[in-house]
């Protein structure tokens, strides 16, 4: 199985390289290290969110509230910074993470303790979180001049040649890789999604594992909230509206099965980068940005068809399955 | 998955409860009660609420969404979901706007709308029913794709200049305060009631939602039923698009954005099981009216739209959580 999964990531990797190749045939500058690292930087937030979403999807759930979570935490950190500019930024990042995790807790508890389908829970919290932003901000914007210089500087400041924003993504990727491949909790995420009943018999608490996944995705969305607001230096009700679909799209393109239990960190990252390259390449090849939504929609559909073909179970046939008419 | 742990203590009664007792304790009855309560609150909230013209205006809050909600109810009962409905509205509306520029008149516009809606639904249906892909991902994809096409065609521009006769669908009155949309809503509700509760197709839909494999072995053409349901949803979205476009008089690519959420909420509030297998059309009708009343009443109180969406979100989670909490509590008392 593992070699097979690897091959799918490799295929996606090749597709990505081909995409960059096609664009750079017309505009060689696109393939330069500087340009590609700026694409990575631009996609960092999507990568961080896709990693969180992946943990949730692995357990057969879905978190549609990530973008609203991001926006709410972003607004909170921006307001906090506007009120208390002296608050050290690392502390603010930790506060953002905790706030995000708490919002993830709400999703997780509803899924774990009340057995409500995750899609319903997160559709609900998607609108609720977004509405709370309006309630706490009164519809006002937090503008660049209200934020402290250090607040805005962190994601842009450079460390070992990469912007700190990119480092956040790199650390998330590394952390997620260790979690999923080197820890029991990571195995549990796969087990719960692969076969919930079997997971119960191996002593895994299915509800609890799902709860953990939601808390993780919430925490990552929280960090992304700070990054988003500080990078674009503005916070208002509608930031990142609809971004949850991009996140799901990144996961689906990355070969993470919506039915749970299948997916790799490399897949999620490549899926996000695929969307990031498209987004950054469109203006380069002079296509209207209005095309982006249709292209990512088509990419989702093609990816899901492709995934379904390769996910078809090759297990032992006990009863001959009825022919679908 | 749901409640399997509580099923061991089932006591089989020696007779069914009386139809009256069942009706009084049903979800629809509870919902009706909530609706009447909200109606009463609204009359207290604003002295203008009971004005017939005001009530007539209030119906625009839910008629178009409810038309789609009926079809969505059937899709959800069959165990699938269609999140692309609002994007179908955008695409259909864009097509109509495009045809208006070519000088097509009202009958042509409506016909084109229904064809485009059916085609969108058929595309979803093909991917879900024929290729067997998960509907939630497929329709998230087509959600992006359909609205994306509208954005490609329109960009930041808008279509307007619809013919005068086209305005009747969204702005016309049949008699006194009775709008054309109300009549259409009632007719469609009746049709879907008959379809779900009085035909073998409706029975098949419920059977598929309960157990698709068993339904297949019972001789139901599962894929075909699902395909038809998605096409039906596309057609209903097209009809809603005609009404909405006619009412607004213009088309922007952002038309009806976020409606899929409200429509799913409406369906779930109406007592349809989100996991499939059960639900009624009267429930959806009452839920539509209740949601319309809530948003309209809050509007009369000058509550901004985004705060209303908080209510909608809480309503969605609340109505699903409440029966589960009650069931748990009852179970605990019984033990």
Summarize the structure.
Chain A is 72% helix and 1% strand.
User: Any guess at the CATH architecture of chain B?
Assistant: Orthogonal Bundle
CATH topology category name of chain B: ABC transporter involved in vitamin B12 uptake, BtuC
Question: And the CATH topology of chain A?
Answer: ABC transporter involved in vitamin B12 uptake, BtuC
Question: What is the count of β-strands of chain A?
Answer: 2
Distance between the termini of chain A: 30 Å
Determine the fraction of residues in helical runs of chain B and give it as a percent range. Answer: over 70%
Protein architecture, described:
By secondary structure, chain A is mainly α. Chain A contains 13 helices and 2 strands; from the N terminus they run H-H-H-H-H-H-E-E-H-H-H-H-H-H-H. Chain A has a single domain (35-309), classed as ABC transporter involved in vitamin B12 uptake, BtuC. Helices cover 72% and strands 1% of the residues of chain A. In chain A, strands 1-2 form a two-stranded antiparallel sheet. The two termini of chain A are 30 Å apart. In chain A, 49% of the residues are buried. Chain B has 335 residues and is mostly helical. Chain B has a single domain (52-334), classed as Orthogonal Bundle (ABC transporter involved in vitamin B12 uptake, BtuC), CATH 1.10.3470. In chain B, 71% of the residues lie in helices and 1% in strands. Chain B has a two-stranded antiparallel ribbon. In chain B, helix 4 packs parallel to helix 9 (180-198) and helix 5 crosses helix 12 (222-248). Chain B is globular, with a radius of gyration of 21 Å. The interface between A and B is large, with 47 and 54 residues.
Write the layout of secondary structure elements.
The complex is a heterodimer of chains A (325) and B (335).
Chain A: H1 2-26, H2 33-58, H3 66-83, H4 89-114, H5 118-137, H6 149-153, E1 158-159, E2 162-163, H7 164-182, H8 184-194, H9 196-201, H10 206-232, H11 243-253, H12 265-284, H13 292-311
Antiparallel strand pairs in A: 1-2
Helix pairs in contact in A: 1-12, 2-7, 2-8, 2-10, 2-11, 2-12, 3-4, 3-5, 3-10, 4-5, 4-10, 7-8, 8-10, 11-12, 11-13
Chain B: H1 19-24, H2 27-45, H3 52-58, H4 63-77, H5 85-101, H6 106-130, H7 135-154, H8 168-171, E1 173-175, E2 178-179, H9 180-198, H10 200-210, H11 212-217, H12 222-248, H13 259-269, H14 281-300, H15 305-334
Antiparallel strand pairs in B: 1-2
